[in-house]
Specification:
The protein contains 12 helices and 6 strands. It is mainly alpha-helical. It has 2 domains: 104 residues, no CATH class; 92 residues, no CATH class. Helix 3 crosses helix 4. The structure holds heme C (7 copies).
Length: 259
Amino acid sequence: MIKNKTWFWLMAICVFPLGVAGCMTMSGSGAVIVPAPKIAGAEFVGMDTCAACHEKISKDFARTTHSRIVVSGDMDVKEQGCEACHGAGSLHVNAQTNEEKAKTIVNPGKAPEACYQCHLKQKAEFGLQYHHPLPEGKMTCTDCHDPHSPEGVRPGSLTSLGGIDRACAKCHKDQAGPFVYEHEAVREGCTVCHNVHGSINEKMLKQRDAHLCLRCHYQSTYPSIGDTSHSSRIFPGPCWSGGCHTAPHGSNYNEHERL
Ligand code: HEC
Ligand code: HEC
Ligand code: HEC
Ligand code: HEC
Ligand code: HEC
Ligand code: HEC
Ligand code: HEC
């Protein structure tokens, strides 16, 4: 049975532009919506209760995608928001010591399971052969996503693509530049060429061959690319191999993206 309040939220989500993905999600594509992580003996208290002690986080969170999603059709409004990821909070709220507080709440920063319960697609992506070493326990979702910040849940989602690249540059300084000869593609974001959760292609590339580059460099005069005929060059390997454009991120030495 669906409660009235839930319908209110469904409507709110459907008319709110950012919530469109949420609506599709609930009709079967993308994330699968399931209940929050279980904490034995605890009950849901709702976001307002959390806000009493976690004021800053709660304020930021109010502007995120996650603050607008509905957890499942027959669930109370209380169960969405903070507790969808952290589990029911009553024991935590009433706990007397910090130690006890830490034990009575789920912290998904330490393990991705709390995220996977809804994000099965990303779980599958991390299962592909080439992936960030998150399943190996060397990283977590929060290395790239800030769960409480409207700009951080998806790096750059509400601001600019620069947000994504900054998130990558923390760990991959070599690829982030600056370079004397920039490759303009990188300005559109690292995700133009990489599927960063995981991919079937080496280096998490979106495509394993020249098609990665030809999405932007195809010309009607093909196999001429730029001013250069590539008719004898395109077949031996991908564009970035064999001494050709070996610096796809930009180069300090050569304007044609070579090392
Ligand atoms: C009465 C005040 C109070 C309320 C209400 C409260 N918290 Fe907390 N919470 C704390 C304190 C104090 C800590 C710090 C514990 C520490 O430093 O180890 C904390 C820590 C946390 C942590 C970090 C746990 C860890 O160590 O990994 C999370 C997550 C958390 N709270 C979530 C919530 C959520 C979700 C709610 C609402 C359901 C909530 N809190 C309500 C006081 C509160
Ligand atoms: C999308 C899932 C998600 C939701 C929803 C969520 N959190 Fe968190 N929360 C996390 C993750 C992940 C971490 C660990 C952050 C890290 O390790 O950097 C965290 C950490 C925390 C902490 C520990 C302090 C910190 O910043 O590391 C507190 C306190 C907290 N959350 C409170 C809240 C409150 C209050 C709400 C609702 C207003 C909320 N969270 C909603 C995922 C979530
Ligand atoms: C209760 C279900 C639920 C949980 C738990 C959950 N998410 Fe989400 N999340 C959603 C839905 C629904 C959307 C909107 C549709 C989509 O983009 O898949 C979303 C969107 C996102 C987005 C894109 C948001 C944007 O602003 O574009 C990111 C990134 C994300 N979640 C990461 C996380 C991480 C990291 C965790 C764990 C800390 C987590 N989620 C836990 C349901 C959930
Ligand atoms: C290495 C950095 C990184 C890690 C680790 C990471 N993400 Fe992402 N995630 C991104 C980027 C970048 C995007 C934007 C992708 C795009 O725009 O093509 C994204 C997008 C998303 C989205 C929006 C839908 C989509 O796939 O585009 C969701 C949901 C999401 N991530 C969930 C997660 C969850 C859950 C985890 C942990 C299990 C996680 N991510 C770990 C970088 C990361
Ligand atoms: C917290 C650090 C961290 C962040 C942030 C991060 N990565 Fe990574 N990345 C790693 C680690 C660790 C590896 C695995 C390296 C290895 O296995 O040698 C990796 C591997 C990669 C690889 C494959 C490298 C190879 O040699 O196979 C690519 C491509 C990559 N990351 C791109 C990105 C992009 C794009 C982003 C931003 C969305 C990003 N990374 C964010 C730590 C990070
Ligand atoms: C135009 C496409 C493109 C863009 C945009 C791009 N990459 Fe790459 N990236 C590649 C290719 C191609 C390789 C494989 C190079 C090789 O195997 O020699 C690669 C490899 C990597 C590697 C593995 C190390 C290496 O050089 O082999 C990392 C790490 C990486 N990229 C990170 C990033 C980051 C971070 C960004 C954003 C700042 C980014 N990439 C943007 C195409 C791109
Ligand atoms: C997102 C679109 C995009 C993608 C994908 C892309 N590029 Fe580019 N590339 C550009 C733009 C824009 C320029 C600058 C304009 C120009 O010179 O065509 C550029 C410039 C270049 C140049 C310098 C131009 C010259 O005359 O030598 C080379 C070389 C190059 N790209 C190679 C590659 C290779 C190799 C790949 C695949 C790994 C690739 N590009 C993928 C958009 C892209």
